[in-house]
Automatic annotation (TrEMBL):
HAMAP family: VLCF_elongase_6 (MF_03206)
Functional pathway: Lipid metabolism; fatty acid biosynthesis
Gene: ELOVL6
Compartment(s) of residence: Endoplasmic reticulum membrane; Membrane
Family named by the database record: Belongs to the ELO family. ELOVL6 subfamily.
The entry's keywords: Endoplasmic reticulum, Fatty acid biosynthesis, Fatty acid metabolism, Glycoprotein, Lipid biosynthesis, Lipid metabolism, Membrane, Transferase, Transmembrane, Transmembrane helix
Protein name: Elongation of very long chain fatty acids protein 6
Gene Ontology cellular-component annotations: endoplasmic reticulum membrane
Keyword field contains Lipid metabolism: yes
Spans through the membrane: 65-88, 164-184, 196-222, 234-253
Organism: Perca fluviatilis
InterPro entries the record matches: ELO_CS, ELO_fam, ELOVL6
């Protein structure tokens, strides 16, 4: 691979180059605890909103939902491409271990801006739930639990520039690129093949499994002194990813496997009744 090919994925836009990551990290170190305030306010609005909407008719909000999902899809796609380019560069030039342990994701070219954009985006992403509440859809525990814990962990981790962040953020950007594109298409009334929904949930499960793997490797390599993190962070990351893995696996089973089995059983009963009637 020649020098041009190495530099190509890491060519910076001016706004990425000018980004002050030191100021961003210092701000997060001083303000990360505000994520608890945002989470508490979110919980009050969500459950208070459900009570408020209970005697009222559901809202349609199709166009706002399309715009909301499309904007998050575009943000996630760009973020996945930019952070993915940086991660591929690190993997190809320094290897898998450095892609996990090297802190350059937080202050390196291209990725430094998108790392900060990622953690900040977890606050406005809480707005997803407004559409669930106002449209009076079923609010899953997985939905609001995931939003709160991702916000808390992202802000908590960014301030310390912990190892593994590059993998965590790039995976999340990539899965969200698929997920919000799917939501935008559904909100626009487009027919989306069912296998795509299965693929997205499978990707989420894979993301959680990889998150656990990265956390375990950070713990292992931290003992050698070259993988900066601390036990509190590794513990919270492991518990978070394990809970996600269980919740998304449960969702996958009940949404795709069990429902498919029930549908097949219902069709079988219908066929039996038809045969009996004949």
């Amino acid at each position: 691979m020649n020098e041009t090919e190495i530099r190509l994925p890491l060519s910076e836009y001016s706004f990425e180059r000018r980004f002050d990551e030191r100021g961003a990290i210092e701000w997060m170190q001083a303000n990360w605890s505000k994520s608890f305030m945002f989470s508490a306010l979110y919980a009050v609005l969500v459950f208070g909103g459900q009570r408020y909407m209970k005697p009222r008719p559901k809202m349609n909000l199709r166009r706002p939902l399309v715009l909301w999902s499309l904007s998050l899809a575009l943000f996630s796609i760009i973020g996945a491409v930019r952070t993915g380019s940086y991660m591929v560069h690190v993997l190809s030039s320094s290897g898998f271990r450095q892609s996990i342990c090297n802190q350059s994701f937080y202050n390196g070219p291209v990725s430094k801006f998108w790392a900060y954009a990622f953690v900040l985006s977890k606050a406005p992403e809480l707005g997803d739930t407004a559409f669930v509440v106002l449209r009076k859809q079923k609010l899953l525990f997985l939905h609001w639990y995931h939003h709160i814990t991702v916000l808390l962990y992202s802000w908590y981790s960014y301030k310390d520039m912990v190892a593994g962040g590059g993998w965590f953020m790039t995976m999340n950007f990539s899965v969200h690129a698929l997920m919000y594109s799917y939501y935008a298409a559904r909100a626009a009334g487009l027919r989306v093949p069912r296998p795509l929904a299965v693929l997205i949930t499978s990707a989420q499960i894979g993301q959680m499994f990889m998150g656990l793997t990265v956390s375990a490797l950070v713990y292992r390599w931290m003992q050698h002194g070259d993988c900066p993190s601390h036990m509190d962070n590794i513990t919270w990351a492991s518990l978070m990813y394990l809970s996600y893995l269980l919740l998304f696996s449960n969702f996958f089973y009940h949404t795709y496997l069990r429902r498919q089995s029930q549908d097949a059983s219902a069709n079988g009963n219908a066929n039996a009744k038809t045969c009996k009637a004949e």
